[in-house]
Write a structure and sequence with these properties.
This protein is of the alpha+beta class. About 30% of the residues lie in helices and about 15% in strands.
Length: about 475
């Protein structure tokens, strides 16, 4: 079969002809990488377009596919957690993201955290060496014709974002997201910290986290300085999709609030939030800590630590001044300061169906955070669905809808059916799963039953793929 591979460049001489059916995937993040793998494993020739390093985003720093720009944690691996259940479902479906994450993981209690550099490099090498995947370093400025998956993520280039807005016919929604600081391990005063995971969970005998305990007085002083600290001004997206809109607290994504925004909600908001000492108090001799700042290993060499829950938009000198008030971090060396970056997403329910296929163009699919899926594994899961369905489309097979009793299916159902007034990026959680009837009242028992049903459903559904 001879098809025109139109990548929508300005010159007609730049159009490429291929001698076999081609799937174009725009975006080399977690969703695009997983989609490429799933389609390639089904015998499809994939052209994976990634604009980096020729054109970088405001948050990325490398040329690697699947670069993690926020946390290095992909979430829990436990079935009792929504992300952990999603991970187990994806493992059943030969997820490349799960496979590479397992190979590059670092200690993180019950969470799946990775050495982010090694993870991205390993993923890039794996996809580069697949015989059915061709990686093309080029920016795509308009939606291509022909079979395509758009998985450009929340940092979609302004030109492609305008093309998407014109195609969709809806105004883009948007919010600002935040990144936590990274600290050099040898600059931490270990005499003031202790090792431990909440409730003793984790792989290391002494605990997978470094913990910085705070007394009530230390905590109150920290919060007092934090709420009055100077922030980086957030501007509207000049020259991009929307202009003239000032960012404010209402534009932050609730699941990734800056630490200073949480502190403004009340004096003890952090002590009952990311700094809660629950599950750690008994590890400290004497008076239990009033609050605890956790540091998570960020690379396999154990030389860099991530400040858990410390996404921030403070100016860099203020980050240094205020975060050094934390016991053990008085001389902290910041490998990377926290930052805010713009995240864009589309109103997916009027854009796509549950198969992640565009409602008004059958050979176009979408995946990732661009359609309102939150979390690393959630993004990868949507790429998995889009990749499978795009391959089936090219093979003239019936497209599949994953059962809403599975976490993969529930995420796809949410982004294709949510009400406009309540649509926000959604991560894997038990609340979006189809309920069990009759209802189980006890929470943990209900979660266990939902997880067991989900895994069983996915095992049966796998036979249809």
């Amino acid at each position: 079969m001879r098809v025109l591979c139109n990548i929508c460049t300005n010159s007609i001489d730049d159009k490429i002809f291929c001698m076999q059916p081609v799937l174009r995937i725009v975006g080399g993040g977690l969703a695009g990488s997983e989609a490429a793998w799933q389609a390639a494993e089904r015998g499809i020739h994939v052209q994976l377009y990634e604009m980096r390093p020729a054109k970088q985003t405001e948050a990325h720093h490398t040329e690697f596919l699947g670069e993690l720009v926020c946390s290095n944690s992909l979430g829990s691996k436990l079935k009792s957690n929504g992300t952990g259940l999603l991970y187990q479902e994806m493992e059943l479906l030969n997820s490349i993201i799960c496979r590479v994450a397992d190979r590059t993981c670092v200690p993180a209690g019950a969470a799946l955290a990775v050495d982010r550099q090694l993870f991205a490099r390993e993923l890039t090498n794996t996809l580069s060496n697949h015989p059915n995947i061709e990686i093309i370093r080029q920016e795509i400025s308009v939606i291509p014709s022909g079979l395509t998956i758009i998985a450009t993520g929340p940092l979609t280039s302004s030109s492609l974002a305008k093309s998407l807005q014109a195609f969709h016919g809806e105004s883009n929604l948007f919010f600002f997201d935040a990144i936590a600081p990274l600290i050099a391990e040898d600059s931490i005063d270990h005499s003031l910290t202790f090792r431990g995971s909440r409730y003793g969970k984790g792989n290391s005998p002494n605990g997978d986290y470094l913990n910085c305990p705070m007394t009530r007085e230390q905590y109150y002083r920290f919060v007092e300085e934090l709420v009055k600290a100077k922030q980086i001004p957030l501007k509207s997206f000049e020259g991009e999709i929307q202009t003239g809109v000032d960012a404010g607290p209402g534009h932050f994504f609730e699941g990734c609030l800056p630490v200073e925004e949480i502190a403004r909600r009340g004096l003890n908001a952090l002590a009952f939030g990311p700094l809660r000492p629950v599950g750690l108090r008994k590890m400290v001799e004497g008076t239990p800590p009033y609050a605890v700042v956790q540091l998570r290993q960020d690379n396999l060499h154990n030389t860099i630590y991530n400040m858990v829950g410390f996404q921030t938009n403070l100016i860099f000198p203020e980050q240094q001044r205020i975060f050094r008030l934390i016991p053990g971090l008085e001389k902290a060396e910041f490998v990377h300061y926290g930052q805010m970056h713009r995240n864009t997403f589309l109103f997916a329910p009027t854009l796509i169906n549950q198969r992640l296929q565009a409602r008004n163009r059958k050979d176009l699919f979408f995946a990732g955070q661009l359609i309102g899926i939150e979390g690393y594994l959630g993004n990868a899961a949507s790429g998995l669905v889009a990749g499978i369905n795009a391959a089936r489309f090219l093979h003239n097979e019936q497209l599949v809808e994953f059962p809403t009793s599975t976490m993969v299916g529930a995420l796809c159902h949410y982004v294709s059916h949510a009400d406009r007034d309540f649509f926000q990026p959604m991560k894997a959680n038990f609340g979006i799963l189809a309920p069990i009837i009759p209802k189980i009242r006890e929470k943990q028992e209900r979660k266990a039953a939902l997880a067991e049903r989900s895994i069983n459903e996915m095992k049966m559904f796998k036979g249809l793929l």
